[in-house]
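Example 4.3 (complexes with small molecules)
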Amino acid sequence: MFTLKIGIFGGTFNPPHLGHLAAARTAVDALGLDKLLIIPAAIPPHKELPEGTPAPEHRLAMAEKTADALLLPEVVEVSSIELDRAGKSYTSDTLARLKEEYPGAELWLLMGTDMFLTLHLWHEPERILELAGICAFGRTEQDGEEVFAPQREHLQRTFPGAKITTITLPGLVDVSSTQLRELLAKGEGGEYLHPAVYGYILMNGLYGTRADLKHLDIPELRACSSSMVMQKRVRHIRGTEEEAVRLARRWGADENYARRAGILHDCTKYLTGPEHIAICERYGVPLDDLERTAPKLLHSKTGACMARHIFGEPDEVFNAIFWHTTAKADMTTLEKILYVADYMEPNRDFDGVERLRELAYRDLDAALLLGVETTIQEMRDRQLPVHTNTLQAQAWLRDHGVTTEG
Ligand code: ATP
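Answer. The structure with adenosine-5'-triphosphate bound is encoded below.
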């Protein structure tokens, strides 16, 4: 009979860091989990939430970014079960609730050394050990069998039948959220965080970070972009960034602008239609009827708005992002570069992409026209309307003697 195996990873996640990520990733494989629930605690029983702790919504959002970073959407979920419950977040209550929700499932409670060594002092440890197996892992190089074994034996003696397993994290990340909060307040610590979490912290000014979003260095700008999208899109964004830089070098455009435009070009990709429209209204971007109903067309406009108004990018970057989906007549070199880079960056794989790649470095206008005509054909095949700016781009290039042969 199939038994659902569920891992439960609780913590304050204040903020979640690479140590948490390594533990979650390893536990999924080591235990063969069907589901992993990441559960931020509302009021942890064993420690006070320090002053300056972000609002629960922020901790939940950072946990969501951590879950998404595992790239296992079928397996990993964030649960707000403890944040939604009044009072202290006792693990025994959480496990009892989960047992009701998933009758017959095998529950595994994940915890690092510090938690494991104090487990017998938690609220209702016998209930915890009855409801779930314990999966403990070391946090530092020192946390070996000699640390785990006495506690495992003690727990098994005190709570007969307790199921306890220890796993080793291949990539130990010796850091705590406490250390990170201190580092972040000094403008350091980004290397211990997943970029999506780091970007979220910077964009929301959490933990005393006072990043000037209008003058971010490249790693910070990448982190902010990463925090705004689903992680499965990040490879494409990085590919576009690198391709845009190579094309800028080839065609004599500004490499820094090409890079920044690549990093930000899809940053609003996951907004909803009403969110796109609200941004366009706020920043005075006029929309035609087709754009109002097609979020794919809107994300280039709202991405450009974010680039300009949140990240302080200049007009060149704004315009490259603004036109990267529809293209238009008479484009600048940087606009052409972003359009073409987005189309043929190394992760793209469609019939004809090799020809586009070859053309992009031989004749940029020909590559642009090929991209534009491929889009027009695709829209017609799918019986979808083609935006007038795209048709105007095609006409302009043809009028200027450009062909797709180069
Ligand atoms: P704080 O410093 O605020 O006490 P923390 O870094 O210990 O935070 P928690 O949110 O309390 O993080 O931890 C949640 C769970 O993750 C605990 O079981 C903890 O042992 C484990 N954990 C924390 N840091 C690491 C790490 N670097 N490597 C592996 N596991 C970790």
